[in-house]
Specification:
Distance between the termini: 48 Å
CATH superfamily of the largest domain: NADH Oxidase
CATH class of the largest domain: Alpha Beta
Order of helices and strands: EHEEHHEHHEHHEHEHHE
CATH topology of the largest domain: NADH Oxidase
Structural class: alpha+beta
Oligomer: single chain
Radius of gyration: 23 Å
Strand content: 5-15%
CATH architecture of the largest domain: 3-Layer(aba) Sandwich
Number of strands: 8
Length: 266
């Protein structure tokens, strides 16, 4: 079966698919004006599905994605800038959580949305590790504190831990880790974008999140007990982490931020 198939009965020769292909793998025939697939598509096509998704006549199909794999966008209006702005400005880094855990199917729904996060060459390299058990999250926090004891950074966090207060993972009920194969094209960027998708999706339904920066530093430093506890598959690396759960307290105001610093060129 051809990589990309064009139904000439439906095609209107409008050239939209050719214009939208990221690698210019579709061109219009000089002979009859129908789209043609360049031979280079066999090695350069990234299976992004843009050509199929952008065609208003449903004239294209992609061998790697079944027709059922494409969701109709429909005629509904996208969220207004005001609504999107409300989500973006009211999202907070949450550091105090309820004890209640989040059902697995709810977490799975959020992670399912993250499949649509953009990735370099549509590689989609992101994998997830979800720590569902609060005790397991607490154990990881303790391992990070053990690492902190070997240096001089954050003495207050170590002291707080010794007094029964977790300032590493904040007593969160859950931890989300994004990881990918070491040989991926841009795994750190792709995982960061996917985690940001999760961050915003979670905020939209009342779930609080916070980037686990100190744990990320401990992993970057190569703390062996932490690697053993995370137990990621061979050939994969850790590229980011986020704590999450139901916020203990609601927020009522949006703090001010610095003005956007912009260089305009024309």
């Amino acid at each position: 079966m051809a990589l990309i198939t064009i139904d000439r009965k439906k095609c209107k020769k409008d050239g939209i698919c050719a214009a939208e292909c990221p690698f210019s793998l579709i061109e219009l025939s000089d002979a009859d004006g129908f789209p043609e697939i360049r031979p280079a598509a066999a090695r350069l096509c990234i299976q992004c599905g843009h050509c199929v998704a952008v065609c208003p006549h449903d004239a294209l199909s992609l061998a790697s994605i079944s027709p059922d794999g494409f969701q109709a966008i429909g005629n509904g209006s996208p969220p207004t800038l005001k609504k999107t702005g409300q989500l973006l400005t009211t999202r907070r880094s949450i550091r105090t959580y309820q004890r209640q855990t989040i059902p697995r199917d709810h977490i799975a729904q959020l992670l399912d949305l993250c499949r649509w996060a953009p990735s370099a060459k549509n590689e989609q390299p992101v994998n997830w590790l979800v720590m569902e058990n609060p005790q397991a999250v607490h154990h990881l926090a303790g391992l990070v504190v053990d690492w902190l004891r070997t240096g001089t950074a954050y003495p207050g966090i170590v002291s707080a831990w010794d007094q029964g207060k977790d300032m590493v993972l904040r007593g969160a009920p859950h931890l989300l880790v994004a990881y990918a194969r070491e040989d991926s094209l841009k795994p750190e960027v792709d995982c960061t974008i996917a985690l940001t998708y999760f961050d915003l999706a979670a905020a939209s339904c009342g779930i609080g999140t916070c980037w686990a920066g100190i744990l990320m530093a401990a992993v970057a430093a190569g703390h062996p007990p932490l690697f053993e506890a995370l137990a990621l598959p061979v050939g994969h690396r850790f590229y980011g982490a986020m704590i999450f759960g139901y916020p203990r307290f609601p927020y009522f105001k949006v703090p001010a931020r610095k003005e956007a610093r912009i260089i305009w060129r024309s």
